[in-house]
Amino acid sequence: MLPQHLKQIRVLMLNEKENLERTLFRLEQGFELQFRLGPSLQGRRVLLHTNYPLDGQPFRRHVFRVLAWNYPSGREDDSDKYCSLELKTAGSYQYYFGYGGIEHSGGGYIVVDPVLRVGGDNHVLPLDCVTIQTYLSKCLGHLDDWPDRLRVAKESGYNMVHFTPLQTLGESRSCYSLADQLAFNPEFSPEGQSYSWEEVGALVEKFRTDWNMLCITDVVYNHTAANSVWIREHPECGYNLVNSPHLRPAWVLDRALWHLTTRIMEGRYEKKGLPANITEDKHLQAVRTVMWEDLFPQVKLWEFFEVDVDGAVLQFKAVLQNGSKADHSETEGVKGLKIIQDPSYRRYGNTVDMDSALKTFIPHSSSAEHIEECCGWFRQKLTQLNEEQRNSVHQHQERAINCIMGSIVYERLAEHGPKLGLVTRKDPLVTRYFTFPYGDMTLEEEMLFLDQPEKTSHFLAHNGWVMGDDPLRNFAEPGSNVYLRRELVCWGDSVKLRYGNGPEDCPYLWEHMKTYTEITATHFHGVRLDNCHSTPLHVAEYMLDVARSVCPNLYVVAELFTGSEELDNVFVTRLGISSLIREAMSAGDSHEEGRLVYRYGGEPVGAFVQPSLRPLMPTIAHAMFLDVTHDNECPIQLRSALDSLPSSAIVSMACCATGSTRGYDELVPHQISVVKEERYYSKWNPSAPPSSAGEVGPHSGIIAGKLALNKLHQELAAQGFMQVFVDQVDADVVAITRHCPSTHQSVVAVCRTAFHDPKTHSYGDNVPPMCIPGKIEEVVLEARTVERKAESYAKDDKYINGMPEYTVEIKEHISLEQSTVVKKAAVTSKDRSEFVQEITFQKLTPGSVIAFRVSLDPKAQQVVGVLRYYLSQFSPKYRRGSAADDAPPEVLLKPLAQIMSKLSLADMNVLLFRCDAEEQEDGGGCYSVPGWESLKYAGLQGLISVMANIRPNNDLGHPVCDNLRQGDWLLDFICSRLIRREGPLAQVGEWLAAMFKYLKHIPRYLIPCYFDAILVSAYTTALDATNKLMSSFVQNGSSFVRHLALGSVQMCSVARLPALPALSNQLEGVPYRVSPISGEKEQCCVSLAAGLPHFSAGIFRCWGRDTFIALRGLLLLTGRHAEARNIILAFAGTLRHGLIPNLLGEGRSARFNCRDAVWWWLQCIQDYVNHVPQGHEILRCPVARMYPTDDSEPLPPGQVEQPLHDVIQEALQRHLEGISYRERNAGPKIDMHMKDEGFSVEAKVNPKTGFVFGGNRFNCGTWMDKMGESEKARNKGMPATPRDGSAVEIVGLSKSAVRWVVELHSKGLFPYDGAKIHNNGTESFVSYSQWNQQIQGSFQTHFWVSKDPHDPNEKHPELVHKRGIYKDSHGASSPWCDYQLRPNFTIAMVVAPELFPVDQAWSALEMAEKKLLGPLGMKTLDPDDMVYCGVYDNSLDNDNYNLAKGFNYHQGPEWLWPVGYFLRAKLYFAKKKDESTFSKTMTLVKNVLSRHYTHLEKSPWKGLPELTNENGQHCPFSCETQAWSLATVLEVLYDL
């Protein structure tokens, strides 16, 4: 078991209705796969099924089990819960998931790679190390000779051999046409011997242990040789005319074409211009004519698709005479005649559906005359339908002729074709599509067989391929006309096998092929799926399951010609294909060949270090990249002999499996045909002379070069050179770099291709010089293909021989000075960190390769080692290649975690966050990336957010990476802003500066990846330190909880100027500092920003209402109790007129223009007392009163101080007495938009109901505080939502406060049980308990909108437009505003649930869910309201009163913070209802929260916005992260 930090974990997110069957996910054994829920599934009871077996259990494809969910942070939220699989077995595995009765809501496959082992010690052969060579088995001779012939592969550096099938071959002698799948080919046994599979297996095992070489062979499931004995005994295993009668017309056509062949052969059509030797276009035209005039009229194919009109009319007439009526249930009332295709495909066998006939043709009466008339119409229609069928067949015939012409042109006329010559029985006009195991007879005699099933069962369809066909469709099944339309490119030696849907459909065939598979898997390490794209998927799946049960780490290779990567993936995922064969021969030039290297493996040079736990990313299939396959045309003919070496080198430098076919390295100048080749391969002889046909040695062809290249390929993969860079130097020169990210060694191979023969093509002498970054340690190899004195090539009769006139001139492991290819190498140094060698070539002739081993220059190598040494404190993956510094800076001697443990959460705000406006207060700003944009934060989060998108995609071209490569500006910015800060922050800055000092001395191309490593290490260490300073709720919480809690760090900071008024000097635990401005000692309490970036700095940073809505979530729940106390007391000091200010303005510039902030403040004091241990002590804390009287000037602390409970009493007493005043400095100076009447503030208590009421229609004293600004629309000075009267949330908050002081008084914690009030010269006393009861008794009557239209309590029934809801206010100056559906009542439900009867509360919440709940927030107004508008645009100024200048701020847009109260209310009242309701509510809550989590993770601000436009659309005018949004969502998670 790997330690947790080294273990590779991949996370696959499940999303509703996401079917990933065509997406490839590749994993290695030893990996852990975690499944997590995406937002669409969170909160649901998801069942995840997989067929990955339990440990020790066999794999059964159709047996699924349910995976158990793990809950790392408890069951409250679904953000962290996961299922996992420990992957230990190779193969393809399926998963699917569902919920709530839907079993399959999505799914896909994972492919686990096999682990290959070689040698006596069973060491691992990584897939990227594989170098394979293909052998045509029939050319190997007797088994005893195999070691001598296969030694060529070993001595050429290959570590895997691919054998074409070793079974008995069919009569065509094609390597892929097998007569007996179970028998070892007797040709491999010498006379008197009879070798079996056991001897082959022993030889294969010997190669594995002694030669470190694995062996794979083909499996052919699609077809068998036409002369297989077993197919004659079991014709049901093929497609014959009995089990596939739809092929009967195609068989008739096929026989007719055979007879046409014999007639052409006999010269019978010469008069019509059609000789036996077809050589020109006019002969083709003659074929066309003969087919239309003679052949088609003779076979009458249309008759198989037509109705016997006379017979059908007679039947119809009889039905009518019997008085039968149509059965409407049968044809579902659809009018129109239905023809039924005869399933046996007899001539005129089609029938008519009589029900559809009776429905379509209805006689006027049952008289003979009317029946006759009706039958006439019926006959006419049938004749028309037959005509349509005939037209359809005509189109098939046209297509058939075109396909036949294409085939004749290729086989007889085309330059690149086989030019077959005369039409003969051996080379017929066209290949036969069906077997015909009988002697010669006439076509007419053959047609009589159609009625003899014992004969037709032996007419078996041949196999082949169809150009452009859907590989997932079986072209021989009913519904396909491929055989009739002659679209099959046919293999006349092989019969297509018919498996049906499963073993029960053809038991013999399945059992036969199962045994074949078991034999293969027993003796070989892997299989190549021949013709994979045409093998039925379910068959290949079944057979590979059998093979893996025998050989669990089976290596599966396939070639796919689907033409689409998505379709390739269907085969790769379902079959668990390990490597897909890719052909270098598909490249038309060196540029394309280089592109293929880049495409098929590796990551870019300088790629980022990926975390061990990361998302599972889709990938392309692992490649087996071959310089030539046994199906390719000969590259020497297509390109040139000189290109063999450089193209091989290009392939060898690919970061994937590579390989070749025997003959390529020996420079065999023709294709070695899988059908016709019968000669033997040469044997290995180290001292073989050049012209020896039966032997090859190291000097034959390019073998010496290939050995060096294969060794290099294996070494690069084994040593982790997994980064690739391809450089097209010029039209023929390709340079490929393989780079090791831990040692930073590179190998650069420069290959000069020769796609054209230098004898006929002019290649220039000048190769451009190359700059190679780093220090060239050695020339690994330099090799040139050169001509030598030897006989010219002559094809040998007995052995497959190559061109003796070429060999490779090769030197290995030499110094640069010893190179004959390089003229000179000058050292040029670009700057302190770039060490570059310029190479000039002299003998890089076409057909040459040179490979350099390059390391960083010694200084850079040392610096990288030191960087890796200091990074290894964060992860052991940096240990390789690390080295300590002899004289390290002092700051690096301590672990970073130790330095960061000294930081406070206020320090963390500076280290991680701070937006541009906050930084500007300190004279700085956020870093701006030239040509791109500014970072969101000056702290580390600003970069982490950007790098999170760059890293997984290795987007090294991103402007941030460019900026890092071009200079050190960003590095200096990061550390200098911290060093300026003194204390522990400066130490962190110095640590970063010391690391960056090393970073500046490494090559620039490596800076982005090491910068990211340093950044991620510092960031994760800071997060760990942050969590330790927070409450256990955060420390033990889910990722979601911790993400939200970071909002506390984000929003709470100490500005250059103190944002809060000073606290009493008697208070303990108040932080102090030396003022950066005056140099005096001053308090430095953190303040809470309302939102970033708009409300983050200056006087607009702190707002009373925002602070106290956010305080419980961001400070109390996160454990920041001292900061919460300081903020509560600082605001208490500003109380004036019995109110808490809205805009704080440091207290001195405060605006007392809101009615609700004081109640939110009181709610927070209540929350503090309830949440904090000994929290009631805050009530006795001294408050420094800034405004001891309404009209006093701001006083400094110490002049008037009183305990907090007295300030609370004053707030309550002033409300009972009645508050009425005009704002100080009223007028445009403090509010340029407000009308004069708006500056009058009123807040009182209704003596009848106990409700707090106030405001007027010219001001807006609650959170919905948009004041009109547009003169054009005439809404300037008019509030959009005055909410005067008694706003529902203020009533709820006041009820909560009064109830609480009653409880406090009863416990002796609050000295007042009521308040004396003076009105009109009289004094009276109001007890709090009486006030509490008064609100309780009045609320339901005045706020509930009953479902009963005749409710006697309803004073304005004409204003009701939604029933079963709570009003938004009571007593508004515009009475209809009371009845608007808004989300504010949910606040009252959370703070004062006792006001709400359960059923009525639930009804109102259901309505709010239906009408107001959006993806992230709550609509601020019922969408059915006539002034609803869900899109906020503050810049729009038009004449629309309801919209101009963002007048609809709270008239529809979806605000986030109310969603917290809505969800908390739902949870509270769901608990009061039944279990089922609570369960559904939990699902809803988790589902809504999952969307917040997703937004939070993706947001570069790492926050939740103030609001969104309708349906969750982004609003550009919103704060990107808002304190109360984060806080109220965190409160929901706390309640969970």
Overall description:
By secondary structure, the chain is an alpha/beta fold. The protein has 41 helices and 61 strands. It has an eight-stranded parallel β-barrel, surrounded by four helices. A seven-stranded mixed sheet has the order 25-32-33-34-41-36-38, covered by helices on one side. Helix 6 packs antiparallel against helix 9, helix 30 packs across helix 41 and helix 32 (1157-1171) crosses helix 34. The longest helix has 46 residues, at 368-413. Residues 330-334 have low confidence and may be disordered.
Round the mean pLDDT to the nearest integer and report it: 94
Structural class: alpha/beta
Widest sheet: strand ordering: 12-13-16-22-23-24-27-28
User: How much helical structure, as a percent, in the residues?
Assistant: 25-40%
CA-to-CA gap between the ends? 36 Å
Flag low-confidence runs: 330-334
Into which percentage range does the β-strand content fall? 15-25%
What is the count of DSSP helices, taking H or I runs of 4+ residues? 41
Describe the sheet with the most strands.
8 strands, parallel, barrel
Structure characteristics:
1536 residues; alpha/beta; eight-stranded parallel barrel; seven-stranded mixed beta sheet; 41 helices; 61 strands
Per-chain topology:
Elements: E1 9-14, E2 19-20, E3 26-27, E4 32-37, E5 46-50, E6 65-66, E7 82-86, E8 91-99, E9 102-112, E10 116-118, E11 123-125, E12 131-135, H1 146-155, E13 160-163, E14 167-169, E15 178-184, H2 197-210, E16 214-219, E17 223-225, H3 229-233, H4 248-265, H5 281-299, H6 309-321, H7 328-331, E18 339-340, E19 351-352, H8 354-360, H9 368-413, H10 443-448, H11 453-456, E20 462-466, E21 488-496, H12 507-523, E22 526-529, H13 537-550, E23 555-558, H14 565-575, E24 579-583, H15 590-599, E25 603-604, E26 613-615, E27 623-626, H16 635-638, H17 644-652, E28 657-661, E29 680-681, E30 683-684, E31 695-696, H18 703-718, E32 723-728, E33 733-739, E34 746-752, E35 770-773, E36 775-787, E37 799-800, E38 806-814, E39 822-831, E40 834-841, E41 848-855, H19 858-871, H20 896-900, H21 905-912, H22 916-921, H23 940-950, H24 959-966, H25 969-979, H26 983-999, H27 1007-1028, H28 1032-1035, H29 1039-1051, E42 1052-1053, E43 1072-1074, E44 1081-1083, E45 1087-1088, E46 1091-1092, H30 1104-1116, H31 1121-1132, H32 1157-1171, E47 1182-1184, E48 1201-1203, ...
Parallel strand pairs: 1-4, 1-26, 2-9, 3-9, 12-13, 12-28, 13-16, 16-22, 22-23, 23-24, 24-27, 25-32, 27-28, 29-37, 30-31
Antiparallel strand pairs: 4-7, 5-6, 5-8, 8-9, 10-11, 14-15, 17-21, 18-19, 20-21, 32-33, 33-34, 34-41, 35-40, 36-38, 36-41, 39-40, 42-45, 43-44, 46-61, 47-48, 49-50, 50-51, 52-57, 53-54, 55-56, 58-59, 59-60
